[in-house]
Write a structure and sequence with these properties.
The structure is a homodimer of 111-residue chains. By secondary structure, chain A is an alpha+beta fold. Chain A has one domain (11-100): Winged helix-like DNA-binding domain superfamily/Winged helix DNA-binding domain (Arc Repressor Mutant, subunit A). Chain A is built from 5 helices and 3 strands; from the N terminus they run ααβαββαα. The first copy, chain A, has helices at residues 16-24, 26-37, 55-67, 86-92, 96-100, and strands at residues 44-45, 71-75, 80-84. Chain A has a 3-stranded antiparallel beta sheet. The A-B interface holds A 12-13, 16-17, 20-21, 23-26, 29, 91-96, 98-100, 102-103, 105, 107-108 and B 12-13, 16-17, 20-21, 23-26, 29, 91-96, 98-100, 102-103, 105, 107-108. Chain A binds a DNA duplex (30 and 30 nucleotides) through α3. Chains A, B: This is Winged helix-turn-helix transcriptional regulator.
DNA sequence: CTTCAGGTACGATGCAAGTCGTACCTGAAG
DNA sequence: CTTCAGGTACGACTTGCATCGTACCTGAAG
């Protein structure tokens, strides 16, 4: 299990309240939605998400996601990698990631 | 469709961020967990939930749940009824209500 | 070495939200 | 009518949190 030098909670320890609070924020949810949509689950750069906020705030948001147990952060010193903890999240809260795709009203009459 | 004199958003208008924010609170989530667990979906009294908070705060929380589109509130003047909008929630966010049952670490080694 | 971009640490700020106190409304029961 | 319990309205208080400014660290490239 390489790539978890910045660790969050174990899979069984994920708290639903913490997770919901993490996903309540627009910016964090957009990150998670992108990650959940990419089925390859590859490691992504921190700034590969187009977030309209400062660096410091991005650091804060990624920390919240990590402490909620939703992502791993891999520290390379002057660069950071992000990876979705899909297996752990799915095991603990099956179906949660699928909900992220239902963000904007999409299930209704695609014309 | 009787019993919606205090109305929330339409089923298609439910917002994921609003819903997550509503479910992030411990007290509101306990209410929703109870409602989701009762498959009869009967109308319940407001004080049938054992919430360790004042009346005013309960009023506030039920309002938040209603405005998120998760419940209906039926006003009887000096009494109020609560009913889960199960069909609407399931249609918009399928599987969300099932997640509420996974609150405390329950899916792990039931011995 | 210096330079530079990516990230973090710390503090400050502004706003949203959970909580309660006081006062008031509503309908049912005496 | 009065009384009483369930609920609401308004306001105040406090905490949490998203955001940013400044300063600093880290590793790679000149």
């Amino acid at each position: 299990m390489a790539g978890r030098n910045l660790v969050g909670p174990e899979a069984d320890a994920l708290d639903l309240g913490t997770v919901f609070r993490a996903l309540a924020d627009e910016n964090r949810r957009s990150v998670m939605t992108e990650l959940a949509a990419d089925r390859s689950d590859g490691e992504r750069g921190c700034n590969s998400f187009d977030l309209p906020i400062s660096k410091q705030t991005q650091t804060h948001h990624f920390r919240v996601l990590r402490e909620a147990g939703l992502i791993d952060e891999i520290d390379y010193g002057n660069r950071k990698g992000i990876r979705l903890r899909r297996a752990d999240v799915e095991k603990r809260f099956p179906g949660l990631l699928a909900l992220l795709g239902a963000g904007p009203s999409a299930g209704t009459s695609p014309h």
